[in-house]
Amino acid sequence: MANHGLIIGINQYQRLKPLKCAKQDAVEMARYCRDEINFDEVFLFTDESDPITAPNGSQQETKPTYTNLMAFLHDFFESQRLETGDNFWFFFSGHGLRHQGQDYLVPSEGHPTLIEKTTIPLNYVTQRLRRCGADNIILFLDACRNENDFSNKSVGWQKQQGVITIASCSPTEESYEIPELQQGSFTYSLLEALRIQGENNCATVERLCNRLRERIPEINRQHNKPPQTLHSIVEPHYKNHLILLPKQAKTPDIELLRVEALELEVEGKLEEARQLMRRVLALDTTRPKYWQDYDRINRKLAQQPVPPSPKTEPINGESAKTITETPKPAAPPEIELKSAKGIDYRNLEDLLKRQQWEEADEETATVMVQVANRTEEGWLRVEDMDNFLCEDLRTIDQLWVKYSGGRFGFSVQAKIYRELGGTQQYDERVWDAFGDRVGWRVRGRWMVDVPFLSTFDLKSPQGHLPARYFFAFTTHKSQHRSRWILLFSCVETCKTITETPKPAALEEIELKSAKGIDYRNLEDLLKRQQWKQADEETARVMLQVANRTKEGWLRVEDIDNFPCEDLRTIDQLWVKYSGGRFGFSVQAKIYRELGGTREYNERVCNAFGDRVGWLVNNSWIYYTDVTFDLKAPLGHLPHLPIIITQGIYIGGLSISSLASRLVKCNI
């Protein structure tokens, strides 16, 4: 697994304000890659960097001019130098901009009015990088400088196909240099995070991004700089689990990567599955199951026709497009109701098909004791779980996953447990976190300790069902835990997850706006279930739409005249990514069910506040008390404390106005 890097830092610009720390950012990043994590090759471009040897043997200057950078991108990526399993890091610290929907990086002689002729499209950079052969390409971009002269400084907002983009700030923000540190806050925080050792290391993309989201604003506050929030786009999403620092990777990190590979196998994305399994084997060659997975995927690939190669259009002005003709995977076949004990699973399938979740949960418990020959006793022992028949476990799991659209099932629960770091050894912290995540533990109390009241609804937390087999089979807590952990082992042994059909993708939402608002950041936050940031972003875009950004709050008349196109887009995004739990239309439906109309009614509004969790003990909650979690009451979000008059939030009046507007907009 080879590691290569292209690192650029530009302080001196001919036609733009100079920067103070960009060169040092690049030098420190190059030193880290070369000396601390032993990259095979690092190319450094700064105002004073040494020449490099071009593929033809000549010496090439590394002053970061347009000509030098374009020549490097052309010459060094004309042929495939790397292979699957290798990594390529691209780091840029300097000026950047966004122009006509495209991201651009500005070389040292970039001109603010000759953008197409003197700057480099980020699409073109990624197109060239993809030619190197590495299947893991990461862009680290610090190019939204507060010192630049462009009207739109945001860079890193544009999704780059198959590439991980980690940008220094969100699209509406600017990035800052910290003279006391002699670095930008982004690069300082990035190197600090990469150097963390032990339990809290940032070995994976996901952990690195989470750390930077916390640390960059903290650094800015300490040095009296405005807020700056990391913006990341991980394409495709499973690359969140890619391992950046192999020496710091833990077993759960490797297992999670393997699970992603198995899911890609199910989806028919065999080449991507093979790439991930090669990464798994590069990290750990001692486990026979890893080699079995890899061999199985290779056999499937050998039986497939070779897919057509991507066609790449040459760079033309402002963009470069990559067109790949990818055949769609076949629809998943019907589930074969197999049983090693002759169990009839048609009743279970019928109950799940009709979404009778409680009855299906009871039927699951019934058939499981039948399989284990424990019908008379009515409960399963730990040894029964340890020896549970794969054929039956697979059938039960596949039925749950298929008819719940991927929300419920043993493999869903097992994946959550592994994501939390769970292994075959009992760990109280992981166990409690698992209970919280699937909704089996409420306010620190397990449902087994109180009358069992599971939520038999698709709106319940992911992995919430099936559950009765867990709570009903024994009264000993230690056996609950042991049986569950053994069930995960069975799922692993039986490879249940590898044969689980995937639900159809949710319908894409067209991000329409009557005011030209870009809703991609809101969609990205909701997709990643960053509910608080999404709530804040919703407030920000609504103020933009209503031309009330300066005032920072909306009047009732602003809601009455809010463009339907924008209201519909915002609502659809919230409803889609919350699984129907959050959104304006969800709130309006509750309000109308309680008897709400256009006219303000204190009783109805209080009942509404109580229902959505905004009114607690007869007091309206503060924004700091909002629950940014899918476990919050139906309709709890978006909260939006921006609808005020004379500084007082008017929740009741705002919901009546909003409900009325939704009706007029036919939402």
UniProtKB/TrEMBL annotation:
Domain Peptidase C14 caspase: 6-226
InterPro entries: Caspase-like_dom_sf, GUN4-like, GUN4-like_sf, Pept_C14_caspase
Biological process according to GO: proteolysis
UniProt protein name: Genome sequencing data, contig C280
GUN4-like domain boundaries: 339-468, 513-640
UniProt GO molecular function: cysteine-type endopeptidase activity; tetrapyrrole binding
Pfam families: GUN4, Peptidase_C14
Region called Disordered, residue ranges: 303-333
